[in-house]
Specification:
Blueprint (H helix, E strand, L loop, with lengths): L2 E6 L2 H9 L8 E4 L11 E2 L1 H5 L8 H7 L4 E4 L2 H16 L6 E4 L2 E5 L7 H18 L6 E6 L2 H10 L5 E3 L22 H9 L5 H6 L2 H8 L2 H10 L15 E6 L7 H21 L2 E12 L7 E12 L2 H20 L6 E13 L14 H19 L39
Parallel strand pairs: 2-4, 7-8
Antiparallel strand pairs: 1-6, 1-7, 2-3, 5-6, 9-12, 10-11, 10-12
Helix pairs in contact: 9-10, 11-12
Length: about 425
């Protein structure tokens, strides 16, 4: 045993039950909007899952299965605060190697923790420490295995509140009954590639040679996956610099019309631009994607605008967003129902701010440097006095409460970004 993988059970819903003792033991669903009836579940409690409620269900569908279900809007800043308390507790037991998301982490076991029984004792100690020192409603499932991939698979095999060990002697038998698509790392696209190669189950996947997997994946990731599946302690390469910064939101009914959604898109872009400057990067492309409330065959619509020179100037990025937005309005005129379900804005083609390729005519506009310095100062003021202290006047009266701390699962704000967590 070399790896421990920990996965918190129904994390958002469990935090709500921890904060509200009257909801413990009751079915509960978390939705993204304050107007809960217009939303879909982004998390459901274990009690709701047992009644058949699933992510993506609307409240009225959930009530048909579970009349007494609690429906509550998401509070991502609260989930981040509890996340940091949980990480501090787990660090008391062993060093965390990697936080994969707000509800998943992995840790390399020490030399004296690698036999099955010491590893189980460690896992039980973590569970007991969380219950005693953080919150009894915040349970987790833990997997222990020779590779990080196998430990993640083990954690998924015995949820909720499970503890599963996979040893080399268990392989491959312990994996053979699992659906191929449920293995972490087997996306829909990879599953199609495997099927074209004649691999349709875990037994066939197990028989692949690393070189064959590299060819199917089209990269060394396939070889790494197969070797980790066989129990080799293969660490992924360290993450590189971010490839994009973006934010997206499910839209409240009053913002569903394209004209009403424009200020929301601007606010999302400004949040992404602030993160861009904080990382000392510049963006050469603005990407707008939307989903319609009434789905048609086209599903998601995506438009892009490439800038002549990469920039961190929010004014320039907002102007660049206007082109994709005009394309959105043209697409909306061709639809019977032009209401939007969600909008996402991404900044891509990133480069270091001191390594960008300058436009031939940039020198003719000396103000671009002044504007970037202006926005850096605006960021400093907003960090000191609050996220919307300084912003364009057109957004001042926009009620964007649901734009508050968005958790993209791979990006978790630092504890210092939040007030101290009150004692439960």
């Amino acid at each position: 045993m070399r790896w421990l993988f920990l996965d918190f059970d129904s994390y958002f819903a469990s935090v709500e039950q921890q904060e509200n003792p009257r909801w413990r033991g009751r079915p509960l669903m978390v939705v993204p909007l304050e107007r809960t009836e217009a939303s879909m579940a982004i998390a459901v409690s274990r009690e709701a899952k047992r009644a058949g409620v699933r992510r993506g269900m609307r409240p009225r569908e959930a009530r048909a299965l579970c009349p007494d279900i609690v429906v509550t809007p998401a509070r991502h800043d609260v989930y981040v605060r509890w996340h940091h308390r949980l990480m501090a507790e787990i660090e008391r037991h062993l060093p965390i190697d990697l936080v994969h998301s707000i509800d998943e982490l992995s840790a390399r076991l020490g030399v004296g923790q690698r036999e099955p029984e010491p590893a189980r004792l460690l896992a039980r100690g973590i569970k007991a420490g969380i219950a005693a020192n953080v919150g009894e409603a915040l349970t987790c499932s833990i997997g222990l295995a020779p590779s990080r991939l196998l430990a993640k698979i083990a954690a998924e095999m015995d949820k909720p509140d499970g503890l599963r060990v996979i040893t080399p002697a268990d392989l491959p038998d312990v994996l053979l009954d699992l659906p191929l698509e449920e293995l972490p790392g087997i996306s829909t696209g990879i599953a199609r590639r495997l099927a074209r190669a004649g691999v349709r189950d875990v037994a066939g996947l197990w028989r692949l040679a690393p070189r064959q997997a590299r060819a199917i994946w089209g990269s060394v990731a396939g070889e790494r996956f197969i070797r980790a599946l066989h129990g080799e302690d293969i660490d992924p390469p360290p993450p590189g610099p971010p490839k994009s910064f973006g934010h997206g939101r499910v839209l409240a009914p009053e913002h569903a019309a394209p004209e009403a959604a424009w200020p929301v898109a601007c606010a999302l872009l400004l949040k992404a631009a602030a993160r861009l400057r904080r990382a000392r990067r510049v963006a050469g492309e603005v990407i707008l994607s939307v989903r319609w409330r009434v789905e048609e065959a086209d599903g998601e619509h995506v438009w892009k605008h490439v800038l002549p020179m990469a920039t961190a100037d929010s004014f320039g990025l907002l102007r660049a967003l206007e082109g994709p937005w005009r394309a959105l309005l043209r697409a909306a005129r061709r639809r019977r129902d032009a209401r939007l379900r969600s909008v996402h804005v991404h900044l891509a083609r990133l480069a270091p701010e001191d390594g960008r390729q300058l436009d031939l005519f940039a020198a003719q506009d000396a103000r671009w440097q002044e504007r970037e310095r202006l926005w850096a100062e605006i960021d400093r003021l907003n960090r000191r006095f609050g996220g919307r202290t300084v912003e364009p006047a057109a957004l001042k009266h926009l009620d964007l409460a649901y734009l508050g701390a968005k958790i993209a699962f791979g990006r978790i704000p630092e504890a210092a970004d939040f007030d101290a967590m009150p004692e439960p």
